[in-house]
Amino acid sequence: MAVSNVVKVGSRGSALALRQTEEALALLRPLYPALEFQVVTVRTHGDIDTLSPLPTMGLGVFVKEIERELLSGQLDMAVHSLKDMPSSLPDGLALGAVLRRQDPRDVLVNRWHWSLSRLPEGARIGTSSPRRVAQLKNRCPWVKVLPVRGNVETRLRKAQGEDYDGAVLAAAGLIRLGLTQHIAEYLSPQQFVPAPGQGVLAVEIRADDDRMLGLLWPIDHAETRYAITAERAFLGLLGSGCQVPVGAYAQSDKEMLLITVFLGSPDGKKVFRAKLEGLTHDPLQLASDAYLAVVERGGGTLLDAARVESG
């Protein structure tokens, strides 16, 4: 049977998702000029339901429909923001490539263009991320944190509208969309710990598709893969149903891998952080060490309470 020269690439339809997909294809097209990469947009549950609070919608709300089409053979690969992907992939799927990480940090935007520490009493800051909520409430208990949904452009618009004074977003999204002029402050990833995989694009394929794996191998970034393997393993150790606010950020320094992790209560009154280092080539051990560190520092009580609550 002849091998098709058409590669169907799945993507969400937002401006950011399409920009991210083009970022991956810009690496692939020069390598394979004989192939035609066709972008296929897929609406996910997270795109269709724009009103439900994200934490109540379950895991993978921005990837499940794309993964279904990938498994069925309608797509050959799919480009995702890695932080949207659960720590465990569905059976039959694999990360064919992890691209070099863009800026991992969260950023603050607000009508005054002020830093977090300068925000006035009662400032209304929007985010629907439990991780960002907990860290905002911990660092700035005087601000009012409000839920906000929508794509990057929508959240930016709301951040300076009647109902909000600002918002916390991912730096990578604003950078990719050319909207960095709105950023008031880049938040330190050691102090305001990002989501596992934040700033990273992943190309997902069927696990048994050796052809796609071979095509993607040249664009896989080893240092980023080691880092996100540690971050996602830490998340996985917490349990797939765990709703505790969590962050993890790892960075490779030659033979050593440094990781900063965060667990917090939803109200931000209890936070547990740990910073550890291990061997770059053993990210799973580092993730295990980080998990034990936050549990021993008191995070275990948060996890136990969350597991009881989730049934």
Parts with pLDDT < 50 across at least 5 consecutive residues: none
The residue-averaged pLDDT reads: 93
Number of DSSP-assigned strands: 13
How many independent structural domains?
Answer: 3
Taken in chain order, the helices and strands follow as: EHEHHEEEEHEHEHEEHHEEEH
Biggest beta sheet summary? 5 strands, mixed
The side-by-side strand order for the widest beta sheet comes to: 2-1-3-10-4
Superfamily (CATH H level) name of the largest domain: Periplasmic binding protein-like II
Q: Per CATH, what is the topology of the largest domain? A: D-Maltodextrin-Binding Protein, domain 2
The Rg value, from CA coordinates, equals 19 Å
Instruction: Give the helix/strand class.
Output: alpha/beta
CATH architecture of the largest domain: 3-Layer(aba) Sandwich
- For the termini, the CA-CA separation is 50 Å
Share of residues in strands: 15-25%
Structural shape = globular
**CATH C-level category of the largest domain:** Alpha Beta
Number of helices: 9
What fraction, in percent, of the residue positions are helical?
A: 25-40%
What do these coordinates show?
This protein has 311 residues and is an alpha/beta fold. It has three domains: 6-99 and 200-220, Periplasmic binding protein-like II (D-Maltodextrin-Binding Protein, domain 2), CATH 3.40.190; 106-186, D-Maltodextrin-Binding Protein, domain 2 (3-Layer(aba) Sandwich); 234-310, Double Stranded RNA Binding Domain. It contains nine helices and 13 strands. A five-stranded mixed β-sheet has the order 2-1-3-10-4, with helices on both faces. A five-stranded mixed β-sheet has the order 7-6-8-5-9, sandwiched between helices. It has a three-stranded antiparallel β-sheet with strand order 11-12-13. Strand 6 (124-126), helix 4 (130-139) and strand 7 form a beta-alpha-beta unit. Helix 8 (222-238) packs parallel to helix 9. The mean pLDDT is 93.
